[in-house]
Amino acid sequence: MTVVLDTGDRPRHPEKAHRPDAPALPKPDWIRVKAPVSKGYAETRAIVRAHALHTVCEEAGCPNIGECWEKKHATFMIMGDTCTRACAFCNVKTGLPGPLDAGEPARVAEATAKLGLAHVVVTSVDRDDLDDGGAAHFAVVIRAIRARCAGTTIEVLTPDFLRKQGAIETVVAARPDVFNHNLETVPSKYLVVRPGARYFASIRLLQRVKEIDPGMFTKSGVMLGLGEERNEILQVMDDLRAADVDFLTIGQYLQPTRKHHPVVRFVPPDEFKAYATIAAAKGFLMVSSSPLTRSSHHAGEDFARLKDARVAPAR
Predict the structure, then answer these.
(1) Residue 233: which of 205, 294, 241 has the closest Cα?
(2) For burial by CB atoms within 10 Å, which of 85, 173, 194, 241 has the most?
(3) Who's near 204: CB < 8 A, 6+ residues apart?
(4) What is the C-alpha to C-alpha distance for residues 266 and 28, in angstroms, rounded to an integer?
């Protein structure tokens, strides 16, 4: 039986190691990407390594890493490389994380400056072991970037802070430009795909951000290909609009290993386009919907368009 191993000698996903291999569908042509071999990729990797940082690009096995890192666009993953959750879709290491690194905020800020980022995305592992879920650490990172890179806009992609009272308020008070929290899938799939989370708690998080700061941009994303039905995706859109979410991303789920949830279907590009049309009609300011769409893919360019879209109705 195959065991999913990290670069060390312990299983990267111990909770999945003894599961039977799930089927793996062959990838269609529209999913294929080029190998990351550019000079820009190597330079980005060197800066990340020099500052002892983690990126979701690497840890989650993002298919767009070659394209993004060529442009020196990296998404920092704070609070370590080990997550307290065990989502069936995710390639991030599972286990008991170590203590928070007090020097990390300064290193994230310095790396942001070295990469020359006009817009930076900061995400994290889930930290259910912390009283505030890591909210205060998010706030320190945001303020460190502001102090070092005054002109850089900041997008956070947070965990759900489930049962962490005051956590959302702490992050919003640090004034990120975009508050992103991904629903990931439809409610009927949560028990299998995202068992540690609660769908309506995630909706409530996004709604709460707008209650605290109505001017803050909010964003969320879902994956297709996990066995969801079309009407369920449309209901998710309605739930997000009811929470006044501004920006929706929709992308294809890709199976990290045979131990993860199988890809039930590769959704053709035309269906992604159709979902984008529907979502725009439902009132989202921005929609990014394609097989290779990911939360932080083209985040800087999308943020510029998002700001323009809010101003456009007033013109």
Answers:
(1) 241
(2) 194
(3) 243
(4) 7
Q: Please give the span between the terminal C-alpha atoms of the chain, in angstroms, as a whole number.
A: 62
pLDDT, greater one: 181 or 15: 181
Q: Where are the beta strands (DSSP E) in 138-246?
A: 153-157, 178-180, 217-224
Report the predicted TM-score, pTM, of the whole model to 2 decimal places: 0.93
Write down the number of H helices and E strands in the chain.
Answer: 11, 10
Please list, residue by residue across 78-109, b when 16 or more beta carbons sit within 10 angstroms of its beta carbon and e when fewer do: bbbbbbbbbbbbbbbbbbebeebeeebbbbbb
All residues at 6 or more sequence positions from 218 whose CB lies less than 8 Å from its CB, including other chains:
178, 179, 180, 181, 206, 209, 210, 243, 244, 245, 246, 247
Q: Which of 166, 167, 123, 165 is nearest to 141 (CA)?
A: 123
Closest CA to 59 of 115, 3, 124: 124
User: What single string gives the DSSP state of each residue in 64-128?
Assistant: THHHHHHTT--EEEES-SEES---TT--SEES------TTHHHHHHHHHHHHT-SEEEEEE---T
Using 50, 70 and 90 to split pLDDT, how confident is the model at 1?
very low
Note the pLDDT tens digit of each residue in 220-256. 999 999 999 999 999 999 999 999 999 999 999 999 9
Distance CA 266, CA 120 (A): 30
How many Å apart are CA 248 and CA 21, to the nearest integer? Answer: 32
According to DSSP, residue 154 is labeled E
User: At residue 6, does pLDDT exceed 90?
Assistant: no
